[in-house]
Amino acid sequence: MAEEEKPNGEEQVKDNNNNNLYDAVQRLILEPSKIKASLIPLFPEASRTYSRQLLHWSRQGSPLRRILFISIGIVALVALSGLVAFTLFFLAATVNAIFVSLLISLAVAGGFLVLFFAFVTAIYIGALSLAIFAISTVTFWAVVAIIITAGWVGFLYTVWLVTSKSLGLAKQSLSVTGSAITTYSAAWGTRNIADKNSI
Description:
By secondary structure, the chain is mainly α. It has one domain (about 40-190). The chain contains five helices and no strands.
């Protein structure tokens, strides 16, 4: 028994000795990936649950809440579309600039080629600046137009809702007034008949 415990104890000592700096650094680097790997399957279900809760919230309230939900979604979609368009243009311009820089470094000997490629680089920078301005302007005004449209739709819907409620209240008021007049007339008529019979 003592001999069996001794090899186990020795193995345990060997395992403890294998924990060197390399293993510690490797564990430090690999642990976040293990955490990411364990959390990645949870993201689809979490996003489905969140979207279900968001749809349930938008359906619970009044139609004004749905208009708010739709307008915010459209604004976010347009803003993200502008961001993606700018990112793609920026990526293309960056690849072109890298290519031009490579050609410039290859053409160091020729002064004319260096000057030519410097002008081409300046044109790329100008095109990138123009694209930034154009895409941001279009995205900004699209967002403004969507917000104004959503505001007008909400305002007109509110006016229609208030008008329909007011007409319903007026109709109910006229109905109550008409029934009160009918009741008063009937009571007045029976009183007059009773007075005539007593004379």
